[in-house]
Amino acid sequence: MTVDVKDMLLDKLAIGPVSARVYQGADYAKGPPVLLYFHGGAFLQSGLTECPVARALASTGAIVVVPDYNAPLGGVFPKPLEVGFELFSYLAKKRAGFGDRKSLLLIGGEESGGNIAAAIAFKARDHFANELDGQVLMSPLVDPFMGSASFRNADAIGMRQRWAEGWSHYLSGGVCHPYAAPCTCSRLSGVAPALLLTSQDDPLLDEITGYADRLRSAGNTVHQHVLPAGTGWPAIYGGKTDAAPGWHGTACAQFSDFVRDISTA
Fold first, then answer.
1. SS3 112
2. CB distance 88 to 80 below 8 Å
3. CA Rg, the chain, in Å?
4. Contact (Cβ atoms closer than 8 angstroms) between residue 51 and residue 66
5. Is the pLDDT at 96 greater than 80, yes or no?
6. Which residues of 170-199 are buried (b: 16+ CB within 10 A; e: fewer)?
């Protein structure tokens, strides 16, 4: 499906206007899922740039809104989360012109953006925001300790130092709240259904797999998939890889299956 892309300003927010790039399948059906998707960048990136995952998911018929969430208040916790939750609340009000009242409302993100999405799922639960239908986490950064076995591969793709700097920046406010580091959260029950994607050659594999297991053990609905090595998956968050991108079909199929399953649950 052809994907239309437009940049716009979301200006009816209590925090002030936020720029966003919207990816929309040109032939989407009635009631398309609306996905508020947070870009990666190790907590350090701001600005609107091309987001391959957002484009891919929009090709399934979704409307994907990618905000410049670090720009309004800065990139130190809890400011990006405050922006993200305000955006979620904004879309929850009649979808703010995206989709229609039958559209599922999802949040998602890759790498540091996946961290923000996971935190919004916690906050939505804690604030009884029942409008959230699901969370789509693509290699989310959930563990600031960076001590898993798979993380040893971070040097090979050129990400260890960047992630160390990113975590240091994000947590520089001096608080390691469970919203900031989802793997430290002791109360995981009651969050929106989750789709988690990673790959065999992803240094974040172990922390993501562990997080998925804990979500599932807490009684949440979890869809999890590990792509094989060599699909170029680490490139979605800037990792170095010689592999040609081969993740699109699997990611889109997993997303479509997830949307279908939570629609009928």
1. helix
2. no
3. 17
4. yes
5. no
6. bbeeeeeeebbbbbebeebeebbbbbbbbb
pLDDT digits (tens, 9 = 90+) for 163-204: 999 999 999 987 789 999 999 999 999 999 999 999 999 999
Distances (CA, A) of 183 to 64, 180, 201, 209: 26, 9, 21, 11
Order the strands of the 194-199 sheet from edge to edge. Answer: 3-10, 18-25, 63-67, 34-38, 105-111, 134-140, 194-199, 222-227
Q: Give the alpha-carbon dihedral of 227, 231, 234, 237, to 10 degrees.
A: -100
Exposure class string for 10-48: b at 16+ Cβ within 10 A, else e:
beebeeeebbbbbbbbeebeeebbbbbbbbbbbbebbee
Give the pLDDT of residue 190: 97
3-state helix, strand and coil shares in percent for the chain, rounded to the nearest 5: 35, 20, 45
pLDDT at site 216: 98
Summarised one tens digit per residue, pLDDT across range 151-167 is: 999 999 999 999 999 99
In sign, the C-alpha dihedral spanning 36, 39, 44, 50 is negative
pTM summary value: 0.97
> Residues near 36 by Cβ (< 8 Å), separated by ≥ 6?
65, 67, 84, 87, 88, 91, 105, 106, 107, 108, 117
Residue type, 162: R
The residue ranges of DSSP E strands in the chain, in sequence order, are 3-10, 18-25, 34-38, 63-67, 105-111, 134-140, 194-199, 222-227
Amino acid 28: pLDDT: 66
Per DSSP bridges, beta strands 194-199 and 105-111 are: unpaired
- Average pLDDT over all residues of the chain: 95
Beta bridge partners of 223: 195
